[in-house]
Amino acid sequence: MFSRKFRTFLLSLAFSLFSFAPVIAQNLPTNLAAKLLPEKLGEFRAASPLKATKKELVADEIDRDGLISEASRTYVAKDGQRLSVTLSTSASDAGAYALLTEERRRAESSGNEGGTTTGNIGTASYFYWDGLHNDLVFYKGRVSVYIIDGGGSRDSQLLLDFGKTLAETLDKGEGDIPVLIKHLPDWQKASRTALYVTSDKTLKRYFADGSVFSVVSFEGGAQAVVANYKGQGLIIVEFNTPQLATDNDQRIVTKIQDLRNQGQPIPAYRRVGNYAVFVVGAPNEQAADELIDQVKYQQVVQWLGENPFLYEEATREFTETTLGVFVSVVKASGLALVTCFAVGGLLGGFLFIRRRAQQRAVEAYTDAGGMLRLNLDEMTPQTDPTKLLGRGN
To answer: Strand pairing partners for 128?
Structure first.
């Protein structure tokens, strides 16, 4: 039989475990993010324990962008400056990029001084002054990071140093932003405020439930981008197969017709390859068509199994590479030959001219040795007649 003291201990332990269980359940897991926020990062050291994020605060991101882990921590530099870091991991690179674009779009629309400035940390990044602190947001692979300079300085060097140090420890993933972004007209400028979308719930959140986007399905891994062009909203939804694009196209056309019959505003719409392209807020149909005309679909074929044309592709690549090497060698050899001829000609001409000059400067050669020589072979120049002895001499 257990003693009262021991039973009390067991009850206390059980109560503690049951009390702690809901706390664990309501926090987003930190295990993946925690591994990426060690005690020491270069010249920076952790100044606080890891802090979890409550699920209800990021429920939207979990549902729409595949957020799976998040942790926060404070770091301090050698000079005592402090940085607050929040690191999130997503189920995909696209999900991490979607989180970054949401943050940047929110920052650009906040009205704070200066807006955002594109950085060069990780795969994509930007700096932002929020009115009190200088912030750096970047993503690399499946990881997105939000860093706040706790000192309130406008100088971004501290953020830059820490961001580069942290980014070097992260897996690069695909190593580039989603290619759909690059299919936007003037994408370098448009991507500043573009919103990348990995869930149809995001489209339904930004547009009315009864809009045409309510029938768009992201089944099969579709993704989308929303960009602004002088008051016009351009939305491109990319479907992974022609069949999915066709199914969605049929639903979209039907929905647009229903909205037109109801007298509701409708967007300009066109299917471009596997893209569903929409324009909202256009001043007229011509302006919408001109914007859609700038969207070009670039088809990419991906084999789910073994590529049946692998040998042909390898042969073609080998042939092209070999031909390229041969042409390069011929060009290099020809250039070397021409260079040799040119240099040889210059040196030969210089030596020839120098030798001729030396020959003109030297007296005519004679092998007579000071003796009288008969000019039988007519090789010796004629003697001056005035210097010859006459008959009477």
So the answer is: 116, 135
Tell me how far the alpha carbon of residue 36 is from its chain's centroid: 22
- Number of domains within the chain: 2
SS3 68: strand
**Strand intervals (E) in the chain:** 40-41, 44-46, 51-52, 67-76, 82-90, 116-118, 124-129, 134-140, 143-149, 195-197, 223-229, 232-238, 268-272, 275-280
Residue holding tokens 């580039």?
Answer: 176
Q: What DSSP state is assigned to residue 88?
A: E
Summarised one tens digit per residue, pLDDT across range 193-251 is 899 999 988 888 888 777 899 999 999 999 999 999 988 999 999 999 999 999 999 99
Contacts 24+ apart (CB under 8 A), 164-169: 164/121, 165/41, 165/42, 165/43, 165/44, 166/36, 166/41, 166/85, 167/121, 167/122, 167/138, 167/140, 169/36, 169/41
Whether residues 137 and 185 share a domain: the answer is no
Which residue type does 285 have?
A: E
* Residue 335, domain member (yes or no): no
For 5-18, how does the pLDDT look when each residue is reduced to its tens digit (9 = 90+)?
333 333 334 334 43
